[in-house]
Amino acid sequence: MPSKLKGLVTGLALGASLFAQPAVSADRELLNTSYDIARELFAAYNVHFSEYWEEQTGETLDISQSHAGSSKQAQAIIQGLKADVATFNQVTDIDILHTRGGLIPENWAERLPNNSSPYYSTMAFLVRKGNPKNIRNWDDLIKDDVALVMPNPKTSGNGRYSYLAALGYAQDRFGDDQEKIDSFLQDFLSHVKVFDSGGRGATTTFIEREIGDVLLTFESEVLNLADRYDNGEYEVVTPKVSFLAEFPVTWIDEYVKQNKTEDLAKAYLEHLYTEDAQRLLAGFNYRVHNETVKQETADRFPEVKLLPIDVIAGSWENATKEHFASGGKLDQLQRRR
Amino acid sequence: MHSSHSSRHRRVGDSPAIKWLLIGTALAVAIGLLIVPLLVIFFEALGAGWGTLADNLLDQYTLHAIGLTLFVAALTVPLNLVFGTALAWLVTRFRFPGRKLLITLIDIPFAVSPVVAGLLYLLLYGRNGWVGGWLVDYDVQLMFSWPGIVMVTVFVTCPFVARELIPLMQQQGSEEEEAGVVLGASGWRIFRTITLPNIKWALIYGVVLTNARAVGEFGAVSVVSGNIRGQTNTLPLHVELLYQDYNIVGAFASASLLAGIAVFTLAVKGFVEWRQTHTLNRLQTEETA
Known about the structure:
CATH superfamily of the largest domain in chain A: Periplasmic binding protein-like II
Signal peptide (chain A): 1-22
Number of helices of chain A: 16
CATH architecture of the largest domain in chain A: 3-Layer(aba) Sandwich
Subcellular location (chain A): Periplasm
Organism (chain A): Marinobacter aromaticivorans
Keywords (chain A): Periplasm, Signal, Transport
CATH class of the largest domain in chain B: Mainly Alpha
Radius of gyration of chain A: 22 Å
Mean pLDDT of chain A: 89
Helix content of chain A: 40-55%
Family (chain A): Belongs to the prokaryotic sulfate-binding protein family.
Helix content of chain B: over 70%
Radius of gyration of chain B: 24 Å
Number of helices of chain B: 14
Strand content of chain B: under 5%
CATH topology of the largest domain in chain B: MetI-like fold
Strand content of chain A: 15-25%
Oligomer: heterodimer
């Protein structure tokens, strides 16, 4: 019995050491927490960056990835998930790392170029083969027989972006006429047949359950979907005016100090702005800042008037308070139906 | 009523049409809701051939997820085996104030949604939690690493063994054990030679259920895991991750593994249940004899 027990304990300890440690041994480790649909993107970038880093320093890297909804990731980081860098799809989720976690300084967005957003996207439409409802721009979405599918702005950043994009279009078109803007938004919301809780769910509704004429989501996602079904089953429509969706990144000061990865984490994020990395990002259907890559991919990313949050709603804080909070504009417009 | 006078006793629901309608409905529901989805998992997993299935299962991260899941179950099951048996022994062999309350408390993990359980652990043992904040000073990390996953899994599965044992041990009573005491056996000897053989099958049944749930737990683990691929991703979380990636075949390959474990569990459960009824029947015949 005791020898068996010993065997069991040794076995468990061995198992524990196996699963407590990353699978590959390397000189240094880095943990990147990211949003749910960025796994393939960062799997590719990690290989790219590891090669660069080894060339520069001779050190081998083991970069781990963690993916979930970016709000959940932010919560986990605040509760002690010791990530070195956060690469999210919502500015507000990085902000709370400062406001609620005290893990990064307030001016995090100024530490890297373009508001610490190495790539960006916008909101676009996916329509069915041949674009039977002839959807070209936002005002086509409120034609009588058009049914929309989008994630719920209450629960999903993706849905919030689509709402703000529609608002931006209305502001651009109607100027100061608040009544017309409200009535357009109300019309727009009343055409949404299914509000899914997240982006992936909305995609399933549109593609697998075959509901709706238009799916509203990130341009990057829309392009991915069109690529996936390359027999032309779906077509991409990029509206003339849309929202500037930033994909902010930051290193997490508190944890990189503990993990002694400050130099590595900074280099990992700064390298995202190099031409090669930007080309890789564009390959995953994100818009990038590098001029050369921009020209190379111009046919894939048509010219869009991109409105940032400051122009549409002043600030994220303001947008949340005015539009998405309980009893806010979103609730009012849906109730008035 | 006059039908009772007839030689063939028939009640209202006994007409053949209703009988077959009920059987047909039950069958349709069972096929539509249980059997077809199960078959779909295996069908989809094999959709691209055995080779692809093997490739998906032998992926470095899938293998790690399988290993981690088995490791968590290997820790959870013995812990809950000991805990459940001790608890059942305590509440069925002793009378003390708060005993009824304790029996009710065992069911908390069943009553609480697993996600809530995960959140509770996170709020308690996370960096800003009561205990977690103190642990940070000693550089002990429970959440977002395997100890956290084991903790919530133990919580979620802890009622199974006790729930199986308590009714049986209540029914069996403590006469045999009392006889042992009178004859001067030590507590450990009574447990080993009298109690354990009596509860053996119920115990195995509880272990089977605990294991099934430990392997399949998603909600609570999802909250405390941190979703780090190759480190804290269990098999159910891995299925979701692959699905998010549009790697449908990979997701179904991993799901088929979980479903396989479930089917195997059912088979063991069926066998154990059969043995258990056997034991109970024997007890009843002995009582009436």
